[in-house]
Amino acid sequence: MPYNYIFGNVFKTLIMKKIALLIVFIASYFSVLSQTEITENEIKDHIEFLILDKNGGRFPGEKGAKRVVKYIKKEFKTMGLQPLSKNYKQHFKAQLRVDKGIEEKPEVTTCNVIGFIEGHDPVLKNEYIVLGAHYDHLGLGGPSSKSDKRGVVYHGADDNASGTAALLEIAEKLASKKETLKRSIIFIAFGAEEQGLLGSKYFVENPLIPISKIKLMINMDMVGRLNAKKHVYMGGAGTFPDGVSFMTTLGKSLGFNPIVHAGSVGGSDHVSFYKAGISVLGIHTGGHPQYHTPEDTLELINLEGEKQVCEYIFQTILNKASSADTIQFINQD
What we know:
Blueprint: H1 3-36, H2 40-50, H3 63-78, E1 82-83, E2 89-95, E3 107-117, E4 128-134, H4 157-175, E5 184-190, H5 198-205, E6 214-220, E7 231-235, H6 243-253, E8 257-260, H7 270-275, E9 279-284, H8 303-322
Parallel strand pairs: 4-5, 4-6, 6-9, 7-8
Antiparallel strand pairs: 1-3, 2-3, 3-5, 7-9
Helix pairs in contact: 2-4, 2-8, 4-8
């Protein structure tokens, strides 16, 4: 066999191996990059899981809610968040709401799911920013529903699978930027919000860190239906210094038309923190006819819009967590 023929085959084999290795490297690089960026596909995947029929509308104490807790815990662990408690879970008793005329209120055990990123400043790492969203919904209907349908899944794609998906995506991106963070960040998926803000109340009354060390709480509840005018609504921006001007300027720079209220703290989990004297920001993209009905489903979610809202919130937290500016509570009552 001619020498040139043998040499040519060996050379071709080496080239092909190098090309294969290069392809693997490029694929791995873009895989890691996509995992640290907020993407429409990942938002969709999270929401799709959360609203599965087998999760039964994520009702407190039931198997579906427990399956969702396991999912969130796994995501926190995968992205490298540290647990504040032994296993990311903070259990509590929730007394359930019942229809009128029913006196007995059943009590179930549910939990908050909590992870955190420690800041790098030797002093400011002892100050915390909380990002939260409730993961529960109405199960198969009940006293809080806006529909007379019972025994069907109330999917809660916007309320609040959208907020839970945003929590996971923003946490993942912040985890990739942890070297730039001065303050520590706590991520909480609250349980039993629909039963009366019970998860956030329990956390505030039983904090896993000194409550005085929490300087700002940002809450996401229904962030999946950004409209054509790009309105992002928020209350409580006046509870921290320059909050209204900061959120307005940042929002406009990102292409939004933010509706920013100094007060109007609203009725979701950030209220529990506000009552404890903590600066808050409650963010949503507006109400709609599908609120608290079985028709709150994935096809109505604006995935591109939610990605943009996630970036808005990410930039807000990145700024406040990497700055040494004082964050102090301003009462808006």
